[in-house]
Fold:
Amino acid sequence: MAKIKEIFQQKRKTYSFELFPPKTEQGFQNLLHTIAELAMLKPDFISCTYGAGGGSREKTLDVVTHIQDQHGITGLAHLTCVLHTKEEIKNVLDAIQSRRIENVLALRGDLPKENPDWKPGENNLHYSNELCAFIRQHFGDIFTIAVAGFPEGHLLCPDRDQDAQYLKKKIDAGADFVITQLFFDNQDYFNYVQRLRRLGVNNRIIPGIFPITNYSNLLKFCSLCGANVTSEIRQIFEPLQNDAEATLQAGIDFAVRQCRALLQGGAPGLHFYCMNKTSPTDKIFKAVRI
Ligand SMILES: Cc1cc2nc3c(=O)[nH]c(=O)nc-3n(C[C@H](O)[C@H](O)[C@H](O)COP(=O)(O)OP(=O)(O)OC[C@H]3O[C@@H](n4cnc5c(N)ncnc54)[C@H](O)[C@@H]3O)c2cc1C
Structure:
């Protein structure tokens, strides 16, 4: 399988999908079906989250291994350092390497509801930049490292300049590229890229795209991750909230407009938060891929 860094040398723009490990065996079987459908779209890579929303951490590697071994598509394994000791992180990275996964999205992660008071000590890593440095220290250049970026600032760090400084720390610690949090105002993305360029960050910053399929779920999701539900989004989707079909179509139309404008403005590709479903990402993807 390829390192994503090597894919970048051949492609100016990349198109990728993000999945999460389901909690049940039936969910896992459904996901395998979704992966087969997404694979037919020939994405450049597919990523799988780690422990997000309380999902199983062990299953991440199974999903990524399946993507690579059964479909020949490059996988990107998310890894969070929260709740792990350094030794455990080293063990997970050894397992990632032994499965021939060459790409890791290095994250701090969030504390789960069941464990809100956990504090990192001497034997833990505090922030994503420390995880990047840890990976480089123990594994050299074996992995391409991605990190998370926040065009609107992070929930706990709304000062966008400060948050950009933290992003630079991740790059300085060895990260190769950035995938952003979802956002709905492209200007936030373009301003973010400029902020980072001014700090000397010249790495790819791939925008994360969230297809809207349900307005109340969107509000819930954004309140958790801190993304702003813009007035444009409210104006489009609020009046449609009791009409599932109209919401779906408006979500596709909005995402297609958003993606086209991002690509025209110079974004180096798109990363779709698929929510483990083929549709409507497939429709958006087919309409915008260059
Ligand atoms: C593309 C993407 C994928 C994601 N995948 C997952 C996943 O698989 N599993 C999951 O649980 N979550 C995932 N998340 C969510 C993510 O874990 C949370 O947003 C988390 O709160 C921050 O993680 P981070 O790696 O950005 O943390 P960090 O970069 O460590 O930042 C965490 C907070 O600390 C601040 N900070 C950063 N560095 C420092 C420093 N050196 N000193 C002081 N403050 C600092 C930041 O501003 C921020 O407020 C993902 C997010 C994105 C955008």
Remarks:
- Residues 134 and 159 are 27 Å apart (CA to CA).
